[in-house]
Design goal:
The chain is an all-alpha fold. Helix 5 runs antiparallel to helix 20, helix 8 packs across helix 20 and helix 13 packs antiparallel against helix 14. It is globular.
């Protein structure tokens, strides 16, 4: 069987496509950055607005839920409004809402503005990626996805460090206000350079000639599904998942499941679906969706676990933890142009995807073998290998995903892949937090099984600790109590460390298993003109 995909008309740029690329990746970087930059500032945001930290988490949840609702319908919005108009409107509203977030006077106001910010920001990633795909010829698709990858990969890596620095040096409001000047520059550049390609203009004119049908049922189901999903991921561990005595998680899970089944059934039968699932039927696109989802889950999961390990057990503050993680971004910048060059020289994307996944597995296994006596450099290098692995497989996965996707379905495909990339991050973060806490409980119980007065090692530790505390306090009763407390602290430290290492081990196994998905993909080489790939 053969698949034929024709190159699109390249009329989306007036002038140099490289200049357009430099402009359109800025909004993507800005939007992805906002998914992580506020994480380290949550305690300061809650304190500044007289709220609890648990309530402050809605600042993240509201943004992610709103973002998730918009991502899968960006193809529909671009087709009806025009991609240029939709992209410019998204940048303008995102920039305005960022400024309002920075000026919020209460937590309720901040959550409202974050919802608006998430709704606007949802259109930035898919739109910029679609622009890059249309601006560059097929043989340079690898380069285009490399440019997009620099923004999509560097933003979550830089976000925690930048957020920690802004919060420490200035105040939490600058986490949002920093978007305003960047957004204004991006809007001006895109307004001057961006034009809709011919095929989108024809599609829009054709839609205008038909009676307007809005899929309100599909949109309603999508809102229910994504809001329930994001709230469940964000609050699941806090509410004890399916053990929630108030049935909040159980209700959300039931609504999500029923809503998702109804959404798929409705949209596959609708002639004008607001969410088009048909691109998932193409084998390469479906495989790449799985790969990107899982790879970003591991990236965000490791990016959650590693700072938690450094801050809770090594005494790092948010800024220092970010600085240890930041060098990985430098190596990502070095690796991605090389990957783009290899794709331009007709390297099969499947080989690069497999190599990147293996590197991600190796890096997580490396981190699972760490201990509590390591130096900062011994944390930096496993992190470098992790981000390097994702850098190697990101652009090839995006090239392979769209290689066999028909032009008419490209807008829907870009939105779906962007949604799964973001949701992978949400799942990875939630999975890391839940798995770490559950394994912490497990190791605490296992380590406590042998900590009794009849254990010679425990008895020796208690005697030495008691003698030391007796010299300090002169009180035998207090010394004995402090000795037992020291043993308990040591148990908690070791169980917490083992739980974090278990997380990395789980991520390593997941990445290794994901290599199997590459084997079901078709040959993926971006060639000039018409590309024919055989199954």
């Amino acid at each position: 069987m053969t698949d034929t995909v024709l190159s699109p008309s390249r009329s989306s740029v007036t002038g140099n496509p490289w200049l357009l690329a430099a402009v359109v990746v800025v909004p993507t970087f800005m939007e992805v950055l906002d998914t992580t930059i506020a994480v380290v500032a949550l305690r300061y945001i809650a304190g500044g607005l007289s709220a609890t930290v648990d309530d402050g988490e809605w600042v993240l949840t509201s943004y992610l839920a709103a973002n998730a609702v918009i991502l899968p319908i960006t193809g529909w919005l671009s087709a009806h409004l025009g991609r240029r108009n939709y992209f410019l409107a998204s940048i303008a509203i995102f920039t305005l809402s960022s400024g309002l977030c920075g000026m919020a006077g209460s937590l309720g106001q901040l959550i409202l503005f974050r919802v608006i910010q998430g709704l606007a920001g949802g259109g930035l990633q898919p739109s910029s990626q679609a622009v890059l795909l249309d601006a560059f010829p097929r043989e340079k698709q690898g380069v285009a996805m490399t440019l997009f990858g620099l923004a999509a990969l560097l933003a979550p890596v830089v976000g925690p460090t930048l957020g920690g620095w802004l919060t420490d040096e200035y105040e939490w409001r600058w986490v949002f206000l920093i978007n305003v000047p960047v957004g204004l520059l991006a809007f001006g550049g895109c307004y001057a350079l961006l034009r809709d390609p011919d095929y989108l203009t024809r599609q829009r004119n054709e839609l205008r000639s038909r009676p307007f049908h809005f899929d309100s049922i599909g949109l309603s189901l999508l809102v229910i599904v994504m809001v329930c999903w994001e709230v469940m991921l964000s609050k699941g561990q806090q509410w004890d998942w399916l053990g929630d005595p108030f049935w909040r998680v159980q209700t959300l899970a039931a609504l999500f499941t029923a809503g998702l089944v109804a959404l798929i059934f409705w949209e596959l039968r609708s002639p004008n679906p607001v969410v088009n699932f048909r691109p998932l039927a193409e084998r390469n696109f479906g495989a790449c969706c799985i790969i990107i989802f899982c790879a970003y889950a591991v990236l965000y999961g490791a990016s959650t676990s590693l700072p938690g390990l450094l801050q809770s057990l090594f005494g790092y503050n948010a800024l220092n933890a970010g600085l240890v993680m930041s060098p990985a971004g430098f190596f990502a910048v070095l690796a991605m142009p090389v990957v783009g060059l290899m794709l331009g020289r007709k390297t099969d994307a499947r080989w690069l995807i497999g190599a990147g996944l293996l590197l991600m597995a190796i890096s997580n296994y490396w981190m699972s073998q760490m201990n509590l006596f390591i130096s900062p450099s011994q944390v930096v290098w496993p992190r470098v290998v992790l981000v390097l692995g994702l850098s190697i497989c990101f652009a090839p996965a995006n090239v392979a995903a769209y290689l066999y996707t028909p032009m008419a379905l490209r807008g829907a495909a870009v939105g779906l892949l962007s949604l799964l990339r973001n949701e992978g991050g949400s799942v990875g973060t939630s999975l890391a937090q839940t798995f770490q806490q559950r394994r912490d409980q497990f190791h605490t119980l296992r380590l406590g099984e042998s900590l009794d007065p009849f254990n010679p090692a425990a008895q020796s530790f208690l005697e030495q600790a008691q003698a030391r505390f007796l010299q300090q306090t002169g009180d035998p009763a207090a010394a004995q109590q402090l000795a037992w407390q020291a043993l308990e602290n040591l148990r908690e430290q070791q169980s917490s460390a083992l739980a974090y290492f278990d997380c990395f081990w789980l991520f390593a196994v997941s990445m290794l298993a994901l290599v199997v998905v590459v084997l079901v993909m078709k040959r993926s080489v971006a060639e000039k003109g018409t590309h024919i790939g055989s199954e």
